[in-house]
Design brief:
Plays a role in the recruitment of the exosome to pre-rRNA to mediate the 3'-5' end processing of the 5.8S rRNA. By secondary structure, this protein is mainly alpha-helical. It is about 65% helix and about 5% strand.
Length: about 120
């Protein structure tokens, strides 16, 4: 059975599937999206470990898995901050100046219509 595993990480049977997944999904994503996928995967696996410990009667709050989940959560928040900064609206100063200029009300002189009629 030891001959079936590659470096002891996972069985040989799923090596091709994992390689296909990596080439189809991860290589097409930008680095930020890759980080999101990695973080969600790590968080999911550690959450499953948390659940396993709880079902075995071990207090997961006293296990190192708790620190790992907190560490992953910190990185997830960092990625969220970066994503929010990218989505933030950027100010087009020229458009804003034009908008403000056109939005300001200008009072016309009382006799502007009389002046216009006299010029005709």
């Amino acid at each position: 059975m030891a001959g079936e595993e590659i470096n002891g990480d996972y069985p040989v049977e799923i090596h091709e599937c994992l390689s296909t997944l990596e080439s189809a999904l991860l290589q097409k994503l930008d680095p930020l999206e890759q980080a999101k996928v990695d973080l969600v995967s790590a968080y999911t696996l550690n959450s499953m470990c948390w659940l396993y410990l709880a079902t075995q009667g071990v207090n997961p709050k006293e296990h190192p898995v708790k620190q790992e989940l907190e560490r992953i959560r910190v990185y997830m928040n960092k990625v969220k901050e970066i994503t929010d900064k990218r989505k933030a609206a950027k100010l087009d100063r020229g458009a804003a100046a034009q908008f403000v200029k056109n939005a300001l009300w200008e009072r016309k002189p009382k006799n502007a219509s009389k002046v216009a009629k006299r010029k005709k």
